[in-house]
Amino acid sequence: MKFKYTARTKSGELQMGFVEAVNQEAATNILGGHELFILSLASAEVVTWYDKVLNFFKRVKPQDLMVFTRQFATLMEADISLGDSLKNLFRQTRNPVLKEAIFEISSDVDAGLSLSQALERHSEIFSQFYISMVRSAEITGRMSEVIGFLADYIEKETSLISKVKNALIYPAVVISLLVIVAGIMIGFVFPQIKPIFEETGADVPMVTQVLLGIGTFVGQWWYAIILVLAVLIFLIIDYFKTLEGKTLFDELSLKVPVLGDLFTKVYVARFAESTSVLIKGGVPIAQALEISGHTIGSLVYMEAIHDIADSVREGVLLSQALEQKGEYFPPLVSQMVAVGESTGKLDNLLSRISVFYTKEVDDLLGNLVELIQPILMIVVGVAVGLLFAAVLLPIYSLVQQF
Q1: Residue 150: which of 123, 130, 136 has the closest Cα?
Q2: How far apart are the C-alpha atoms of 238 and 250, rounded to whole Å?
Q3: Domains in the chain, ordered, with CATH?
Q4: pTM greater than 0.90
Q5: Positions of the chain with pLDDT under 70
Q6: SS3 for 299?
Q7: Would you tell me the crossing angle of helices 128-140 and 259-280 to the nearest 10 degrees?
């Protein structure tokens, strides 16, 4: 199999390329033999569409991973051995895919592999950040503490994603219903009443003429419209899956009014939390920044954080490097990091930054949820009013003529 990797050399130079190996573990060993610190490693094999569908149904939900990690942290804090902890987790886990993965991880650990190596064989379940944290814990001997940090981190991430999804469900349902109703009115109702207006010769309001024209066009060319929309949606989705498309989408999302501010705060909170956890786990700052960049979820921020990591390697203070990226990191971040550097409590200050911006995200989401409902009521009211006016005004005109 062919694997695509991103790694750092001992001198800190970024290296990207492909490696041939039997499996991911073998690829890791090959790269490790060349003294490379792996940042990301993924299969470069072509995945068919039906494989994607099967993987979707076999995926492990974030909630399942959160419960697994919290239980794992509890067992490790109780000083239960790693092998016994994994066997207990296997018995307690309900998700069949995760249960099978835990069994294989437990078997690999019993066979002599380290926990990070065993987890790396299941990279579709455990992120690179997760694996890197476990690897750092093995080096520093702080396994129970790091697993506890991971449990807290995943819980925060799951809670944040859940809040965003819940905030978007209501407007998505309302807008979908509005589009369906408008489509039925324009595509089926208006074409039925058009002959009545043509026979009477009554004056038809402009809004009715426009909707009648749209209805006639949709009625005649509905199959072509569906085909064009399907092709267009496919091309857009396919483009945004490319590196260029993902970068463009991330850039646009940061420029959207209100939502751009929300995304910025989400990414800053993720950056601060993941970097804090990695530093507490004993990972050097530059490497912690590199790993953190891959956990943010934004290619724009990943590139910015990589630039910051390069600056830190050159001897620039982290606070100064963050200040140079002021378009991505608010001044408060660099100021608090500067305090952390001067007091020697950088990890604690980063954790406080994460708490602060997580609260900011919660407040902003709460305000958006409260604003969405009245705005939607106005939009829906105006749209429904236009639709009914387009029907009732001509009918009222006809009644006056008779």
Answers
A1: 130
A2: 15
A3: 1-46 (3.10.20), 166-402 (1.20.81.30)
A4: no
A5: 1, 21-23, 25-26, 44-58, 140, 164, 167, 197-204, 281, 397-402
A6: helix
A7: 20
